Amino acid sequence: MHHTDGHAPELGVGMVGYAFMGQAHSQGWRTVSHVFDLPLRPVLAAICGREPSAVRAAADRHGWAAAETDWRDLVARDDVHLVDICTPGDSHAQIAIAALEAGKHVLCEKPLANSVAEAEAMAAAARAARSRGQVAMVGFNYRRVPAVTRARHLIAEGRLGTLRHVRVAYLQDWLVDPDVPLTWRLRRERAGSGALGDLGAHAVDLAQYLAGEPLLGVSALTETFVRQRPLPGHPAPSSPPAQVARGPVTVDDAAVFAGRLASGALVSVEASRMAAGRKNALRFEVSGELGSLAFDLERLNELLVHDHRAPGADSGFTRVVVTEPEHPYLQAWWPPGHALGYEHTFTHQARDLVTAIARGTEPSPSFADGLQVQRVLAAVQDSAARNAVYTPVPSGSTDPDRP
Amino acid sequence: MHHTDGHAPELGVGMVGYAFMGQAHSQGWRTVSHVFDLPLRPVLAAICGREPSAVRAAADRHGWAAAETDWRDLVARDDVHLVDICTPGDSHAQIAIAALEAGKHVLCEKPLANSVAEAEAMAAAARAARSRGQVAMVGFNYRRVPAVTRARHLIAEGRLGTLRHVRVAYLQDWLVDPDVPLTWRLRRERAGSGALGDLGAHAVDLAQYLAGEPLLGVSALTETFVRQRPLPGHPAPSSPPAQVARGPVTVDDAAVFAGRLASGALVSVEASRMAAGRKNALRFEVSGELGSLAFDLERLNELLVHDHRAPGADSGFTRVVVTEPEHPYLQAWWPPGHALGYEHTFTHQARDLVTAIARGTEPSPSFADGLQVQRVLAAVQDSAARNAVYTPVPSGSTDPDRP
Amino acid sequence: MHHTDGHAPELGVGMVGYAFMGQAHSQGWRTVSHVFDLPLRPVLAAICGREPSAVRAAADRHGWAAAETDWRDLVARDDVHLVDICTPGDSHAQIAIAALEAGKHVLCEKPLANSVAEAEAMAAAARAARSRGQVAMVGFNYRRVPAVTRARHLIAEGRLGTLRHVRVAYLQDWLVDPDVPLTWRLRRERAGSGALGDLGAHAVDLAQYLAGEPLLGVSALTETFVRQRPLPGHPAPSSPPAQVARGPVTVDDAAVFAGRLASGALVSVEASRMAAGRKNALRFEVSGELGSLAFDLERLNELLVHDHRAPGADSGFTRVVVTEPEHPYLQAWWPPGHALGYEHTFTHQARDLVTAIARGTEPSPSFADGLQVQRVLAAVQDSAARNAVYTPVPSGSTDPDRP
Amino acid sequence: MHHTDGHAPELGVGMVGYAFMGQAHSQGWRTVSHVFDLPLRPVLAAICGREPSAVRAAADRHGWAAAETDWRDLVARDDVHLVDICTPGDSHAQIAIAALEAGKHVLCEKPLANSVAEAEAMAAAARAARSRGQVAMVGFNYRRVPAVTRARHLIAEGRLGTLRHVRVAYLQDWLVDPDVPLTWRLRRERAGSGALGDLGAHAVDLAQYLAGEPLLGVSALTETFVRQRPLPGHPAPSSPPAQVARGPVTVDDAAVFAGRLASGALVSVEASRMAAGRKNALRFEVSGELGSLAFDLERLNELLVHDHRAPGADSGFTRVVVTEPEHPYLQAWWPPGHALGYEHTFTHQARDLVTAIARGTEPSPSFADGLQVQRVLAAVQDSAARNAVYTPVPSGSTDPDRP
After folding, report:
1. Is A277 on the interface with D (CB under 8 A)?
2. Do C339 and B342 touch (CB under 8 A)?
3. CB distance C254–D387 less than 8 Å?
4. In what residue span(s) does the GFO/IDH/MocA-like oxidoreductase domain sit (chains A, B, C, D) (predicted)?
């Protein structure tokens, strides 16, 4: 970190990848120090991509000072203290481990990896780096929607009592059209899995984050509804179907699974990219012996709260607009009722990561948390491959406080 | 049936049981011929219960001409042409089979029975009676919420195309309080199962009715969260806990299961009596390649309809208030926007049953349909007992048109 | 009233008119004694209409014992103790006054009359009859939606504190199509006014009922958007427009007005039959210094309740499903979460009227209440005719407890 | 403008005021060129406030290169090409006119001024500057919520046909507590008016923007519910009430008014800071002969669209999540379903203003539009002072295309 007179010391950020996630992370890094009081001031030091002209254009567009074409060069830069990994899952392990070994802090997009083995290696590297004062966080950004953070706080305070039900569904519909092409996200070797790893990973993380405890086991069904899709770069979908070259989809379009938490609560999770009409519907409903909470990312400023101890005649779900100064992150933003959006989760993520770095505290979610999610995803795939039989999730956590 | 001058012939109804369901059925029988043009006019001939003074009071209150204390006497009455069974599940088979053998039409509350064996015997009796012109219907009344019927019609017309997802949840919360007493509904020997048979039966019937095809198999978890409850008639819950005699709950509080339809669609079902804040939330969402539908019984006059072929900029879920004259059953009721309620399902059920009797057509849902639901419930219990392994639902349908 | 052994004495009802309102009232009279414990048992004695065969068919359909073709004969019948007036507004005064003078109780559909002069005569007749033990009620049935009654109770208990805002809108859309024919509802000489008297009367009654105080004055705009409509019985709308005979619409299509209550609260009211897409949207929102309430008749089982004293972080509108046994009228109906519908308001109206008759208490809303609404409607028309100038509502109430 | 090699030329922005609006505008200026392709690149050149240390801190926090303490010095800077005025209304005219005379482009927060006379002078200055190629925009940012812009486009395309109703309500609740202190916003000499100028100005602008035509006249009631409030800087509200020095509130707490558009549509508007539980509820519903639209700023990513030509059985309000690439401004942001927030309106405002400057086109809303809103607000105050009599809004527009 570089100290400048009268200001918070700088924290140089280097980002690998600049597609959707890179754009979103950039917005977070550019904004965070203008909104929050931070002990370190993030500086957009360098961005990395393979195509020289494209990465240069991305650097200009998104406000990064320098551009690199090899992630190893980015990791090696002295002005980069934190490596932010926004690439597809198959390169996460390699980059993250190298960055940690080079003494950098790391932020890695979710899912942590494409396999449990990779995730274990990453978690081990993070643990080793932790002893050197480095911090490694995985990017489950939806924990940082204020309504979601608020939900976690209410549960942690005991407002729901013992949990009975945790339901999470993450529904999108961009694969409904059978002519959507066969991109990397639909190939197992690049993406690891389909809706499961992309959407289900968020759902699993939220289920465990909200409940404050890990999934013990799962029983799962998965399905690929459209098994062949047009190869990218081949004749357009408007060509006669016979002329469109197609290839096999090797990941799931949807996954449905149930599970149990240590407290005995039943969990149900659904992830789909084929839920026509649902654009980004990450919903949860958590019920306990004292109350319930419900949320839908399509209305991200609202949390529905039911207090079961209220008199029956007054009882129901209260729609709390989560924009009050008492709500998480909101003190720094606008007056009550002035909505936040999707990208604010990345500003909040940046704030919390910078705070953890400055304080030397374990970030949440850590790589260990990301590994735990990976184990659940692997158990889901195992269960689905073995007739949905209930499949325990191995417990490897070394941190009893976390899922 | 008894013909009277210038009017539709009468259809004498005899009802067994007069608790919640008896009250609801009575309202349907009393109302139906004042609202719909019917080929037969139902007459509330006799009601049956074991306690003489109570059944006499119920007859007066609900408008029944006579009262009986033995269901065999009710079945034997000449003025009873249709036996309406509103008792707990353990007596359904005995009464229904006797009534069918006595030449009566039968309406039987759901679930059809407490076991597959009973349900098979009932379906066989119905099949035999069918050849004698008798009709036997099972009371899955929620098919007759106009928004639900409309949903079925839209799916049958192909408005959703090939189905991908069928999600049904039926959530109530009357068991959240651990001091709710151990009534017959919480004892396996009387009720067969818990949330599964009570709420899950509706959910399974709706999933199959809406899709127009049977569940092929299921993978299930069930749970009893509160395992001991106060015995009824013992010291009240306000007594010191130590003095309250408790007995074991022998049915499930909640069931979660996933399954597959023949078309390949994934099904997810949840039934719970422990979903704090949800009073009667029977919700479904069905997605296909061309659109989606969503419904919640707590807003029973509304159907949400998404047409995936609409231009993206205009696309979304349309909240249709299902009170137009073009909607099912609505021609007979009020002008647009004037809401119907829960009890109307029983009036519609009465209308459809009377129509089937007059026309001599197979009613929907038939006892065969009720048997099919029973097989799914049994498969759910089997799966839950065997580590959630995917358990096929035996196919015994002799009617290829029906679930 | 006629006493029969062991039962509540009978109360003979005679109804004049059998269109939409007649059908709805019939359902209420048929149902009420099967649901509520009543001191008198209403009997559907006779129905009256001008066309002999039609009124006979209506009697059969709706369950009335006898049919009359002259309302004077109906009023004269010994078996009629209560005259229920469901005709257009221009005959209300004549029938109601005659019935009261003949010693009958009266229920009169809203609006009470087509003019203040008629309403004053009716209120005077009711006052005179009151001293003879007779009861006269006006049919503002929406007061008896349980969520609305609950709202009134909360306000009367002081849960909102001093009121600041009362907003009521009643929006329908059946006149959007310019080819809807020119029925009696669109002619001033029959209907008195248009959306104002039909929908606005309900809105005004609710504003005053909820607040518990009268409107002091109003400032209003009204509009007739479609000024010529096809004459009924002439060539159908599908004819070439030139061939369709049209006549002038002499009532308003919509009215917008603001006013003040004695407490200082601002009131805003809108009534329209041209609000495309709104079928029966009677909505209110009432705000006070301690909280707010909101309601929409299209979701009539829900009341939104905001408690402004709750901590900011937990604050919001609670969606109360008004189906708990503690809620008004609900003890007699179904378990929690089982929805009521539009027609239940007529059952509740019948219950409350029968109770007032048996107890000899002033009914609510009384003819005096109906007169007060009529005065507000007249002030609205005056204001609209005089450039919207604020127009006081004359106070003529002799009953300080009521609006 | 300053050209730099290979990039868009720079546009130096100087901002006066740095409270809530200054913070929001800063976020817009910082973000806009990272998201949109712009012909000019805004640079945060200088910020101005009266307190030297505070303005220096604000400059650092919000990313401004320099700080000034006299707005005249800011206007005089060569590196400032655009003056962005975020001060209370009483200084708008002076600063805006000086900036325009100094050859700068101007963005001025709403309401344009505290009086019609000031607004006329500003509009005249803008007209004169326009001939010199300068651009002057008023900050009605809610036009740039994508769902609102979309609504305007649908109306302009004729999707609603001739309009019948325009209802707008802007409800907040921060004055419900009678101990909120007497800040500048509650003093007529600083703020011009209360809820009317603050919230009502937005409502009036939206009504006219959506309809595409001006209000012809209004009839209004206003009210100040809490007439004395604690003076700021005096003993805190927790002091005994007797010891709290209070002063008179000289602006309205709420305003309710109705009006007419040239097309004949009825308009109703309500603005309140006393609507308990409503934090930032800017809602509209617009109905025409072919359809309707509805919106609520508390759910700013949603537009409800009703097409009255759809078959009745399919008809209703479609909830469009306005995050598709085809929607206004969305191409530049995130994938479908990823919500935008309040602050995005300022980024969109910056984009549109920069585009107008580069193209030399008239911005929307122009100072002439701001003047028109001011005339409506003045007519509202006149009407409220004269017994709500319908008060014409003078037409001074020189631009027939605009409200």
Report:
1. no
2. yes
3. no
4. 149-293
C290 contact residues in D (CB cutoff 8 A): 276
Q: Which two tokens stand for residue C277?
A: 């897409």
> Is the CB of residue A325 less than 8 Å away from at least one CB of chain C?
yes
pLDDT of residue C232: 87
- C18 versus B234: which is more confidently predicted? C18
Chains near A with 3+ CB pairs less than 8 A apart are B, C, D
Tell me the shortest Cα–Cα distance from A173 to chain B, in angstroms: 10
Enter the tokens of residue A270: 């659904």
Nearest CA in chain C to A330: C313
User: With bands split at pLDDT 50, 70 and 90, how would you rate the model's confidence at A241?
Assistant: low
CA dist D173 → A323, B360, D54, D230 (Å): 14, 63, 29, 18
Complete domains list, chain B, with CATH: 10-142 (3.40.50.720), 145-392 (3.30.360.10)
Please report the pLDDT score of residue D292 as a whole number. Answer: 98
In angstroms, the CA D392 to CA D378 distance is 10
Q: Quote the mean pLDDT of chain C.
A: 94
Q: Is B331 on the interface with D (CB under 8 A)?
A: no
β-pair partners for C120:
none
Nearest to C320 among A316, A324, A327 (CB): A316
When CB atoms are compared, the residue of B173, B258, B388 closest to A389 is B388
B132 lies within 8 A of chain C by CB? no
Rounded distance, CA B199 to CA B185, Å? Answer: 12
D176 CA: distance to closest CA in chain B (Å): 30
Mean pLDDT of chain B: 94
Rounded average pLDDT over B190-213: 96
User: Does any CB of chain A come closer than 8 Å to the CB of residue C400?
Assistant: no
User: Is the model's pLDDT at B234 over the cut of 70?
Assistant: no
* Residue B379, token pair as written in the block: 């498969």
**C313 close to A (CB below 8 A):** yes
State whether residue B320 sits within 8 Å of chain D by CB. yes
Is the separation of the CB atoms in B107 and B353 below 8 Å?
A: yes
Q: How far apart are CA B275 and CA B255, in angstroms?
A: 12
- Sequence-separated (6 or more) residues with CB below 8 Å from residue A131: none
Residues B74-117 pLDDT 10s: 999 999 999 999 999 999 999 999 999 999 999 999 999 999 99
For range C179-183, the mean pLDDT: 94
- For residue D260, the chain C residue with the least C-alpha distance is C221
Report d(CA A59, CA A52) in Å as an integer: 11
Pairing of strands D391-392, D136-139: unpaired
Q: Which residue has the tokens 């059920």?
A: B349
Q: Do B31 and C31 touch (CB under 8 A)?
A: yes
Q: D-chain residues within 8 Å CB-CB of A338?
A: 280, 341-343
Count other Cβ atoms within 10 Å, centred on residue A359. Answer: 11
Using a CB-CB cut-off of 8 Å, the residues of chain B touching D319 are 316-319
Q: Which two tokens stand for residue B56?
A: 């006499």
Interchain pair A300, D30: CB under 8 A: no
Q: Tell me, what's the ipTM?
A: 0.94
Is B326 strand, coil or helix?
coil
pLDDT band at D67 (very low <50, low <70, confident <90, very high): very high
Closest chain A residue by Cα to residue D278? A337
Q: Grade residue B240 by pLDDT with cuts at 50, 70 and 90.
A: low
- β-sheet bridge partners, residue D317: B319, D306
- Cα A64 to chain centroid, rounded: 23
Residue D399, pLDDT score:
47
With an 8 Å Cβ cutoff, is A300 touching chain D?
yes
What is the spatial distance between Cα C16 and Cα C26, in angstroms, rounded to a whole number?
Answer: 11
Q: What is the pLDDT of residue D238?
A: 62
Tens of pLDDT, residues A324-368: 999 999 999 999 999 999 999 999 999 999 999 999 999 999 999
What's the one-letter identity of residue D121? A
